[in-house]
Specification:
By secondary structure, the protein is of the alpha+beta class. The chain has 17 helices and 6 strands. Magnesium transporter that may mediate the influx of magnesium.
């Protein structure tokens, strides 16, 4: 299988080989030094260097620079998984369990988690730096807890009676494998980031919507439109993270695939070391054929470990689901506000129609006076023109007829319920 991998993967550049040897050579201070690489040699082959932040299981961090193919060999990942971590491309949130690594793409946190290290793309983003600091803090706290655990059962019983939270200000460490601690920090960072954005959107949305209900203007409508666009985009991101966690919880095989420490310990056991190459090839084929869950089930702690990971995912599923419910409530409030505005606009429109109807009726009544004036303005002689009080009687009779016709129209509108009178 090793020969097959060497034939399928492209050849290693000389600079990458030197980098790998140098990155694992310990220094006098215990930290791994960063050695110079042949950058010009890499450029000739079209392979650019990437800066990565490496955090080991002890909490030590360093910055290394490796190329794409070295990272593929180091973590046993295909090229399509590394594209998920490329900041130049926008991919939805994804958590993938592979043979020797977990690929995490959750908002700003894009990293590769192995059994003994975490590799993040080097970035000045505040959330990436917070992830590194929080991961180091938790690993250090877990290391302190492991020291206490190894000091003897009697001393542990005496110290367990104390409040561990009062010493460190955080809950006592759960002794999960390294990859799950790193995954938990990534989930927490993503959920916290999305929840903070949802809270900011709420703070901005409710006063704006209340202002829109009191004063409908083009400016307020435009602000609400932009707010709704942001809400839809954020809801899609939260929904994707929620669906990804739910998909992992529903698939026991994917959860079993993510137990890198246990798989590494099994591969390093004497049974595997004494096994033949044929058995290794068979085990590799079975793992590719999605039978890794069966091998995990055959172990003694497989079921318990899956339950631990499932409980971890359930905790953050509740958090992200709460954020999604918060956004859903905000969307419903926006929809209710839009319905209220539409009702207001319909009411104003109906009032305008009623006013136009009354104005049209009054115009018709006034037109009667124009008809009478036109008739009496014709050039013909009648005895009525010789009567001095005829103009007064014509004016009074025309006014009474116009008022009568107007009242008749108003009664008709009320009878047909065309206006509330």
């Amino acid at each position: 299988m090793a020969d097959l991998k060497e034939r399928l993967l492209p050849p290693k550049p000389a600079s990458a080989v030197n980098l790998r040897d140098a990155s694992y050579r310990p220094s006098a201070s215990g930290r791994q030094p960063f050695q110079g690489v042949d950058v010009m040699g890499l450029k000739k082959r079209g392979q650019g260097l990437r800066s990565w932040i490496r955090v080991d299981s002890s909490g030590n961090s360093q910055i290394i620079e490796v190329d794409k193919f070295t990272m593929m060999r180091r973590c046993d990942l295909p090229a399509r998984d590394l594209r998920l971590l490329d900041p130049l491309f926008v991919y939805p949130s994804t958590i993938l369990g592979r043979e020797k690594a977990i690929v995490v793409n959750l908002e700003q946190i894009r990293c590769i988690i192995t059994a003994d290290e975490v590799l993040l793309l080097n970035s000045l983003d505040n959330y990436v730096l917070q992830y590194v600091v929080e991961l180091q803090r938790r690993l250090t706290t877990a290391a302190v807890g492991e020291v206490w655990q190894s000091e003897g059962p009697e001393l542990n019983r005496r110290r367990s009676s104390r409040n561990y939270d009062s010493v460190f200000g955080t809950p006592s460490p759960d002794y999960l494998p390294f990859e799950f601690r790193a995954l938990e920090v990534a989930l927490e960072a993503a959920c916290t980031f999305l929840d903070s954005q949802a809270a900011e959107l709420e703070i901005e949305a409710y006063p704006l919507l209340d202002e829109l209900t009191s004063k409908i203007s083009t400016l307020n409508l435009e602000r609400v439109r932009r707010l709704k666009s942001r809400l839809v985009a954020l809801t899609r991101r939260v929904q994707k993270v929620r669906d990804e966690i739910e998909q992992l919880m529903d698939d026991d095989g994917d959860m079993a695939e993510m137990y890198l420490t246990e798989k590494k310990s099994r591969m390093e056991s004497p049974f595997h070391e004494q096994g033949s190459m044929g058995f290794r090839r068979l085990d590799k084929c079975l793992s590719i054929a999605r039978s890794r869950h069966e091998s995990m089930r055959s172990s003694e702690s497989g079921t318990e470990s899956i339950e631990e990971l499932e409980m971890l995912l359930e905790a953050y599923f509740v958090v992200i689901d709460s954020t999604l419910n918060k956004l859903t409530s905000l969307k419903e409030y926006i929809d209710d506000t839009e319905d209220f505005i539409n009702i207001q606009l319909d009411n104003v429109r109906n009032q305008l129609i009623q006013f136009e109807l009354i104005l049209t009726t009054a115009t018709f009544v006034v037109a009667i006076f124009g008809v009478v004036a036109g008739i009496f303005g014709m050039n013909f002689a009648i005895p009525l023109f010789d009567n001095p009080g005829a103009f007064k009687w014509v004016l009074m009779i025309t006014a009474v007829c116009g008022i009568t016709i107007f009242c008749a129209f108003v009664w008709f509108f009320k009878y047909r319920r065309l206006m509330p009178l």
